[in-house]
Amino acid sequence: MKAFGISSEAIDLQAFREQLLDRSCGAYVQFDGWVRDHNEGQKVLRLEYEVYEPMAVKEGARILDEARERFGVSNAFAIHRSGLMELSEVAVVVSVSSPHRGEAFDACRYIIDQAKVRLPIWKKEYYESGAAEWVNCQRCAHASEHMQEQIHPRKSR
Amino acid sequence: MHVTVRYFAAFREATGCETETLATSAASPAELFSECTGRHAGLQNYSSSLVAINDEMAGWEATLKDGDEVLFFPPVAGG
After folding, report:
1. Domain B2-73: which topology?
2. Which residues of B touch A91 (CB under 8 A)?
3. What would the 3-class secondary structure string for B28-68 be?
4. B4-47 pLDDT tens trace
5. Which of A80, A144, B50, B54 is the most exposed place for a label (fewest CB within 10 A)?
6. What global pTM score does this model have?
7. CA of B2 to nearest chain A CA: how many angstroms apart?
8. Do B78 and A119 touch (CB under 8 A)?
């Protein structure tokens, strides 16, 4: 399995976790992003991800490399769904394993935050009202600018 | 020169097309995007957050060459 993947089918979380098993690691951190039933005051029924796969895969692998370098974690994997998704499905998974927990939490957070603002992936929400909209993640873009200033990566000891 | 422009997500719906090949004298992606905004009224409400040329992220002032494929990305929202 590639370190960063795009999947049009449900993610097998067990198989995904197993690829990070590592005897030198004492910490495993996993973030799941779920499909939520509301956004900005509207009831969401389902959503759709459009992914430009050739570049999403390259940029995703770059983010994972950065996380390994900046935080010194042993293993970092992520997978993002594409296509139509129902409520409570897992849209994205990020997993990190490392000797100790501190860097695993930091690296996991870094990966999901960067993924949200750098990957060519767009989300369309379908609402109870019958309307559907591409979600404009301006807030994410704004957060990202600040994040760049605030992150002071710790080197592994 | 000729370049191919590729639209995604909200841009594809706003322009009604996925790709188009244009004869242009635009020197940069910034100039090209403003030309596209002129061609497609639906694009006028948007700004493009990121641009790529031939599948590599690029700057808005990068130099365009004949045959380039320019990708305009609406604001992204993965995760």
Report:
1. Ubiquitin-like (UB roll) (3.10.20)
2. 79
3. CHHHHHHHHHHHCHHHHHCCCCEEEECCEEECCCCCCCCCC
4. 999 999 999 999 999 999 999 999 999 999 999 999 998 887 77
5. B54
6. 0.86
7. 23
8. yes
